[in-house]
Structures are given as C-alpha cells and as structure tokens.
Amino acid sequence: MKTPIILFLTLVCPIVAGAQKVFTTCEEGSIKIEGTSTMHDWDMTTGSISGTAAFVLNGNAITDINSLSVTIPAESLKSGKAAMDKNAYKSLKTDSHKDIAFVLTDVTRIEKSGGAYTITAQGKLTIAGTTKPVQLTAKAVVKGNGKIECTGEYALKMTDYKVEPPSFMFGSVKTGDDLRIKFNVVFTGS
C-alpha cells in the first residue's frame, strides 16, 4: 500500500507545486536613480545589472520566487556629466563599496492581473556599505521568449544609507535627500 502512495506523491506533487527554474539577468534591463537639487532635477542610469532569480513556474504562471539577487556596480551609474558622476561616486563611497545590491528575503504576495503579476516582496538593499530592509512592489511579465521582465520603483532617503547628499560649486548647489530608484530588470531562463 505504501508503494502506490509514494509513487503517486512523487509523480503528482511536482506538477501541482510547479517547477523552479533559475534565471539570470540579461542586457535588456536598466536601473535609473532620480533626484533633485537646488538647481534642477537629475538622474543617473545603468544597464550593467547582474543577478539571478529562482522563479517557481506552473506552466508560464509565476507561483513563487525562491531567491532573487541583483547587483550593479555603483560606478556604472552615469548622468552624462563627469563632474556630477565624480561627486556621486564620492558620496556612494565607491572606493570601498563597489556595488549596490538587492537580495530578496520573502515574497509576501503575488497577484495576477491580465498578463502581468504584481509581486510584493521583502528584501535587503545595500548602498554605500549600509544594508536596510525594504519592501518593494514590482510588476512581472512572463514574455513569450522565455524571459521575465520585472519593473517598479522604490523611494528612499540617501541619509538612511549614510550617504551624504552631494553638493557642487562650493556648496551653492545641493542635492535633495530623496531618491527614486526605477528598475527594469529582465531575466532569461538558463
């Protein structure tokens, strides 16, 4: 009697539970940081994103995310203005903290609406060597080409990460403390 039950569980449980598939980031994504200053708004963008994610899929439906991590080299962020970039890197302490990183710790909700998923997740965000817990909401779309695109944004204060907002022109132009991180991270199945 035990053998048929074990055989049944072995065959059916993986189908019901879904299958985990490991994905890696591809070159299609970007991360943009937007801020303000006493002179004008500014932004810095990078396409240098590395990371992995273990999505649990039932067919093409996302049912869970077992792990996810994303890293960007801080000095890959570019504003198009060399002086601004230099001041930003100094504030981000890139001489000793090369990367900005997010690591997923828990998925609290996945809701499907049309062809997209709204994912609410907890994680740890590390900037300039300081790690803080964060809650993010992202929209995920499973593409027909085997890719999963995750988009969203997150607001933070530089000073929460012990980053002193940069100033320019001997302090006459100061950046605001508030930042908005907009992400478009594309994962491809391996």
Give a quick rundown of the structure.
The chain is mostly beta strands. It has 2 helices and 11 strands; from the N terminus they run αβββββαββββββ.
Note the main attributes of this structure.
190 residues, mainly beta, eight-stranded antiparallel barrel, 14% helix, disordered N terminus
Tally of strands: 11
How many domains is the backbone divided into? 1
Quote the average pLDDT. Answer: 89
Enumerate the spans where pLDDT stays under 50 for 5 or more consecutive residues: 3-16
Name the overall outline.
elongated
Helical content stands at 10-25%
Largest sheet: 8 strands, antiparallel, barrel
Total helices: the number is 2
CATH class: Mainly Beta
CATH architecture: Beta Barrel
CATH topology-level name: Lipocalin
If strands are numbered along the chain, what order do they take across the biggest sheet? 1-4-5-6-7-8-9-11
How do the helices and strands follow one another from N- to C-terminus? HEEEEEHEEEEEE
SSE-based structural type? mainly beta
Radius of gyration: 20 Å
Q: Can you tell me the CATH superfamily?
A: Lipid/polyisoprenoid-binding, YceI-like
Q: Span between N and C termini?
A: 39 Å
Strand content: over 45%
